[in-house]
Amino acid sequence: MTAAIAGVVVVFAKAPRPGHVKTRMVPPLSPDEAAGLYARMLDDVLASTARFARELDLRAVACLHPPDACGEIACSVPSQFSVVRQRGANLSQRMTWAAREVAASGARRILLRGSDSPGLDGETVARALTALDSWDLVICPDRDGGYNLVGMRAPVPGLFDHPMSTGSELEDTLANARALGLRAHVQSASFDLDTIEDLHWLSERRSDSLARLCPATLRYLDENDLWRRAAPARRRRDD
Q1: Residue 6, Cβ neighbours under 10 Å: how many?
Q2: Could you tell me the CA-to-CA distances from 96 to 119, 166, 231 in Å, in that order?
Q3: Torsion over CA: 20, 24, 25, 26 (sign)
Q4: Residue 66 preceded by cis peptide, ω within 30
Q5: Residue 163's pLDDT is what?
């Protein structure tokens, strides 16, 4: 008899196509450079999630967009992942569908994570799982008003019924949670890589622990000298 798993972690990912990913970094990056950076970020996110899943006894699912992306990037997904297409007209609907789908398979703790936060560590994921013993919802914010990890004990219709990529996703999700009677726990903020300013933040905090989590991301930035390409934006911010 197979032992029950601790939960399911779902990685939301896009095909790394120029003009469709990391568009807020263009310019100063070119569409091709931004797509290459996202591809390396996704490599790091999938590799670290595979490791966390083994350590924490989680089933891992890669949820890909657009619908024809499965064949395009499935070969780069670690073998322990199940690969599914995202379903829904927008991210809110796709997150709702994914939570409902994994819950239907018997999961009692569901973690949804994005692919923009290669520095998300195993301790944060483990704390989120533990928090779900006491809370209905757990969220790990990022620095720009969104979040990079959300955990729940069961899918809740209406939780993600708000616009995404607005800078108020965290506030909006928490407001929906309150309206739905959910008890939510907010963890310490992490970082994501959406803008050139985020690259500056990363370069200034290039610790050993961070480098272990996102080596492909850092290597791509180094090899393509993208730190220098981003320098003018840094000066504008500091003026």
Answers
A1: 17
A2: 25, 18, 39
A3: positive
A4: yes
A5: 83
Cα angle 30, 35, 40 (rounded to 5 degrees) comes to 130
The Cα–Cα gap between 230 and 118 comes to 19
Q: What is the pTM of this model?
A: 0.92
CB atoms < 10 A from the CB of 29, how many? 22
Per the CB < 8 A criterion, the answer to whether 62 and 77 are in contact is yes
- What pLDDT does 2 receive? 43
Q: What pLDDT sits at residue 234?
A: 45
For the chain, how are helix, strand and coil distributed in percent, rounded to 5?
45, 15, 40
pLDDT tens figures, 53-112: 999 999 999 999 998 888 878 888 999 999 999 999 999 999 999 999 999 988 889 999
Region of 134 please: left (phi>0), alpha (psi -120 to 50) or beta: alpha
Between CA 146 and CA 128 the distance in angstroms is: 17
